[in-house]
Amino acid sequence: MPNSPALPTLARRHTFALIVEAASASRSSAATSVTAMQAVLAATFLALCPLVQAQADSPEPAYGLSGRIGMGIASVPTYEGSPNRRTLAGPELTLSYRSRDWGAVELGQRGLVWNAVEAGRFRFALVAQFDPGRKDKDTSVLNPTPGDKRLAGMGNVQASTEAGVAVGYGPATLVARQSLSERGSKGVQADLTVEIPWSVSDALSFRFAVGATWADQDYMQTYFGVTAAQAQAASFSSYTPKSGCRKVEASVGAEIAVAPGWTLQANVALTQLGDVAAASPLVSWRNAASAALAVAYAF
Fold this sequence. Notes:
The chain has helices at about 30-55, 215-225, 230-235, 275-280, and strands at about 65-75, 85-100, 105-110, 110-120, 120-130, 160-170, 170-180, 190-200, 205-215, 245-260, 260-275, 285-299. By secondary structure, it is mainly beta. It has a single domain, classed as Outer membrane phospholipase (ompla), Chain C, CATH 2.40.230. Strands 1-2-3-4-5-6-7-8-9-10-11-12 form a 12-stranded antiparallel beta barrel. Residues about 1-35 and about 45-60 have low confidence and may be disordered.
């Protein structure tokens, strides 16, 4: 499922995102919305700080193969900045293999990640992710690719593979990734995320996260720009964005054990597009709230 920072991608880790939208009623209230979103992110970050120390002494991870498989349902915007929504349904699969000699490899909602170096609280990883692209028409319940008929004339953004590196320390992780495709966005992105797990009991745990994503001009042009040719074919004015903040996000995920090996997972998130992205004529709603629900079996 498409990206969204914090449970699996319920927010990235073990499921995928359901979204309930909270957006500003009009462009004239944008400044107020920006201030409110920044206040939410700051308050969330401050609330997480006391939990960092509480999670510092985590037990040694299990070695060998593990994973989870499940099903989930999500309500999401049809694309970033869209005023419309759609429902998604599909499987969730995560596989992980941890070795004492060469780190851990994970395949799941975050793509393929090889944690090559884990020294205390420091981490270094190589990552490969999949960008599903975007359609200029509505997409189905089972198709994770964003799309909306209001984009008719904009053309499709082809799916692409991204590769990069991740550096982490404690709860903070910085990921830099570059598109490898000549047909996709061809852009570079960087994500900074602070993610705090909080175990209430053996049966109930939470995951809190705040993050921001920066994108270069190529990526911003692909997803938020409108060329002269596109403006003629569609109902949008021309727009050439620069590089900048693509979005900021805060999320909370919860996981509860409902039977041996089985868990129910949920996630809610608040997302706000950055100034450069929000100025695009494709964007009707700068702010969105999200939530997701899934059931999974761990092995």
